[in-house]
Write a structure and sequence with these properties.
The chain has 159 residues and is mainly β. The protein has one domain: Histone H3 K4-specific methyltransferase SET7/9 N-terminal domain (Single Sheet). It contains no helices and 13 strands. The strands form three sheets. Strands 4, 5, 6, 7, 8, 9, 10 and 11 form an eight-stranded antiparallel beta sheet that branches. A three-stranded mixed beta sheet has the order 1-13-12, with no helix packed on it. The chain has a two-stranded antiparallel sheet with strand order 2-3.
């Protein structure tokens, strides 16, 4: 069984809040979505490597240097429809520390995050199945099950 847990539900088949090697300057203007998304009310930004053009966010926590920082709630929307919600620690606009990611279909990951990916001890529950263990760069393999949180299957070496 294969599970791919996106941080944003915009692309349920591929994680939308994954890591990339090049993270542009949040202050630099660009054409298509750069990955930096700002809360329309506060201007506070978060990084989403695969931002949907219809994606919007709200962030309830602190904002340091224009980026989400500290504890808070990050709600993602596609258009006006709420999708994934993250409750927890952010650092420099990225999930980092302890957090809970709640998907619209009921899937839930709770545990450690680093640079927008599950990293460290965490528990993922979906459809009544529970997976717990030490995640590495968003990847967890338990027997035949391959799970990702915040990254692509390919980046984990899963086929």
């Amino acid at each position: 069984m294969r599970f791919c847990v996106p941080f944003v539900a915009a692309l349920l088949a591929a994680p939308a809040f994954g890591q990339t090697s090049a993270m542009p300057d949040p202050g630099r203007p660009s054409g298509p979505p750069s990955g930096w998304i700002a809360d329309a009310k506060t201007g506070c930004k978060i990084w989403d490597a695969a931002a949907d053009p219809e994606e919007k966010i709200t962030w309830s926590g602190e904002c340091a240097n224009g980026m989400a920082d500290g504890k808070g709630t990050l709600q993602f929307f596609i258009g006006d429809k709420p999708v994934v919600r993250y409750e927890g620690d952010m650092r420099n606009g990225r999930a980092d520390g302890h957090g809970i990611n709640i998907e619209p279909d009921g899937g839930r990951y709770e545990g450690q995050w680093r640079n927008n990916a599950a990293d460290g001890f965490g528990v993922y529950i979906r459809d009544g199945k529970r997976y717990e263990g030490t995640w590495t760069n968003g990847c967890l393999k338990q027997g035949p099950d391959e799970l990702t949180v915040g990254v692509t299957r390919e980046s984990c070496g899963f086929k």
